Every structure is written in structure tokens, then in C-alpha cells.
Description:
By secondary structure, the protein is mainly alpha-helical. The chain has 14 helices and six strands. Helices cover about 55% and strands about 10% of the residues. It has a three-stranded antiparallel beta sheet, with helices on one face. A three-stranded mixed beta sheet has the order 4-5-6. The protein starts with 12 loop residues before the first helix and ends with a helix.
Amino acid sequence: MAAEQDEPDELNFVRKHAKQQAEELGTSLRQAATRVFSNASGSYSSNVNLAVENSSWQDESQLQEMYLKRKSFAFNSDRPGAGGEANRDAFEAAMKTVDVTFQNLDSSEISLTDVSHYFDSDPTKLVSGLRDDGRVPASFIADTTTANAQVRTLGSQVRLDARTKLLNPKWYEGMLSSGYEGVREIQKRLTNTMGWSATAGAVDNWVYDEANSTFIDDDAMAKRLLDANPNSFRKLVATFLEANGRGYWDASPEQIEKLRQLYMDVEDKIEGVE
């Protein structure tokens, strides 16, 4: 291992930083040098995605605690093939020094807001909370879906996703052509978009504004969604209200009042109230 090489610190920064962490944590150099962490064997994800999808979280600190508990299993050369070993102290010590986060997109069919596992793996706000200076790390996404690979900032990729999918008439009309399932896909994409607000603060206010204008303010569109899938439309409305309540969307009082009224109307329809 690089950290164990007999070299001066000024020529081996891996060793330098591992020595610092070993001293801080009171552990061996090898343990302090661990940099590969994941879930415990047999488990998957941080479960942040499930909390966001089901609106079952109180605040961002709860999401971050879930991430730390689930992702702090260390893999090292002393136990090859044996699975991860819980080492939260080393994980936090490593995360608090992070300057850059990075994820890779390798499928032209699945992007940041198509599924929830991308924001489920994102530690942007977590790192900021752990760092002594509170600095938000730079976050990048590598788009390798074509031969012309590009690296974008996380915010740029979220904006691109919004423009090409959620707010793109060709996309949402294509979804709505399938009726019931199409409404669920629109609702799911808005929820996944909000997930990026929760983990990284990467969603601009205009994304929520334009989505609200497209699916809520347009009465004819709102009726189409309601008639095709009342349950998913209720979740869509609830997600807008949640985004505002959590401080991710600065909506007007008029927008919120309309959403609240719509929610009650959908509840009546689902329950068969005339």
C-alpha cells in the first residue's frame, strides 16, 4: 500500500494523510488508509432514496445519518473477499476531507432523474456537514453515454435532465400516451428531482416553477393527469407541496393555495366523494 511505503511525507501524500488520520483516530496506519467503503455484504443502497420516495424523513440530518450507517463498511487487503467491516470513524474521517464528488452516467436510457439510486449515492451535503470549514464539495457527472464523453457539473446535469425529460413536451406527451403508467412516470421523475434538492441542493427554483406551470397551472393538463391516474397525481401535487415545505421551492402563496385545493379535490375523487 502507498501509505506503508518508507517515503518522506512531502513525496507521498497518501502516507502523510493516513498518518494524520491514524493519529486522530488512534488506529493503525493501514486502517486509517482505508478508502474503499460501501454497504455491508448482502445489502444495497443508503435507503435515502426510499425515505425520499415515501416522504418518510424529518430533515436532511436524518438522511445523512442513514447514509453514514449504511455506507461505512470498509474493504481492505487484510480481508480479501470477506466483505466490508464496519468502520464509521474511518469513513467519516475520509469524507470530511473530500473536495470533489463524482458519478458516472453510462446508459443513454437512464439518467439522474430516471431512477433514484443516483441521488441515493450522492454525499454532497453530507460532506459539507462533516467538513470543518463547511465547504460544499464540487460535484461532477461524467456523461459517457456516447463516444463523445463529457464531464458536467451536477447542477448542469440536473438542469439538462429537466429540460430534456420532465419539461420536454415530447417526453411528457409520450408518457401520457400510455395513460395510467405515464402519469406515474411524471410523478416519479419529479420525486427524483426533489431527491437532488435533498442530497445536494442541485435543483434551481425555475425547475419547480416550470414543472408547476406545466402540470398544475394548466387546468386541462391537470385534468388529464387526474383522470388518467388519480393516485399518482395526488403524489405529484404532494411532492410540490413538500418541496415548498422543505425550502427547496420558493412558490407564491397563490401557487400553494391552488396545490392545497387540488390535493383536497383529488382526495375526494379517490374516496368517491361527490
